[in-house]
Amino acid sequence: MHSQNGTMHYDPRALDAEINAVKASVKNLIEHLEGTSDRAPRLKAFADKVTEAIRAHPGRTIAVALALGYLVVRAARR
């Protein structure tokens, strides 16, 4: 994908094909994981509740995420 003078050339069709392949792989993985778990309905319900809570309180969600990240970093440094 490099030319002789060092510039980058890419084929948009090849890039689209790679993106579509990654999307298909992720979709297949999700379908496989959902199909193999007997807890999938409970996990889906839990994910829906968490999504609703995040949408209802975005500021609190960010604050909690930052606080947890800070605690993890502090614990990792020890």
Structure description:
79% of the residues lie in helices and 0% in strands. It is mainly alpha-helical. The radius of gyration is 21 Å and the shape is extended.
Count of beta strands: 0
Question: Cα distance, first to last residue?
Answer: 45 Å
H/I helix tally? 3
| CA-based gyration radius | 21 Å
The H-and-E topology, N to C, reads as: HHH
Brief characterization of the structure:
This protein has 78 residues and is mainly alpha-helical. Helix content is 79%, strand content 0%.
Strand-helix topology:
Elements: H1 12-36, H2 40-56, H3 58-77
Features:
single chain, 78 residues, mainly alpha, 2 domains, 3 helices, extended
